[in-house]
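Weekly modeling sync, notes
Attendees: S.R. (lead), two postdocs, one rotation student

Agenda item 3: backlog of single-chain predictions. S.R. asked that every request posted to the team notebook include the full sequence so nobody has to chase files. The rotation student volunteered to paste the first one in as an example of the format we agreed on. Action items at the bottom.

Example entry:
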Amino acid sequence: MAVAAGDLRGGVDYPRTRPESDAFFPDDGSRLEYLERLRWREGFVCPRCRTSATPWRASQDRLVCPGCRTQTSVLANTLFYRTRTPLRLWLMAAWEMTSQKYGTNALGVQRVLGLGSYQTAWAWLHRFRSAMVRPPPLSGPRSAVLPPARTSRHRRSHPDVCPLRRHRPWEEEAPTALTPTSCGRWS
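Predicted structure, as returned to the notebook:
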């Protein structure tokens, strides 16, 4: 039975601590099975023919659709796709990033995982953070597009007006040197 994203339970559906993580993922096969459960909650669906049948296992991470015989990887179209780094290190980096109260930095991930370079740790964190950003809404018949200009009649809603002193930078002459404006900004 599929579990909704809000109904996941720590210790049952995902590891809460490092020892639980080691128990959840003793080998690469268990890591791939976990990612397969996350990717296809209702069961495997072929990306080409949309058949929801039980796939064949061609290799450790390749699934073959019985309908159209298309090979699909569990890691395809994920941030783990085409990496030579073991999945164990990727999941450890994800756990390290999400278990810290204030997040983590690249130097900390490099030290904890024993990575060779700071740039690798930084690139991994960049991949994780870009994957966590919500995609922009799709444009369509129901999407509302707001004009870039002000959306209210009030002057204070205009972004270029200083609310305290009514500073209007577009009405002044260009300054000849760096001087503070009436609002306290340097121009």
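Discussion: group reviewed the output briefly. The two ends are 62 Å apart (CA to CA).
Action items: rotation student to repeat for the remaining queue; S.R. to check formatting next week.
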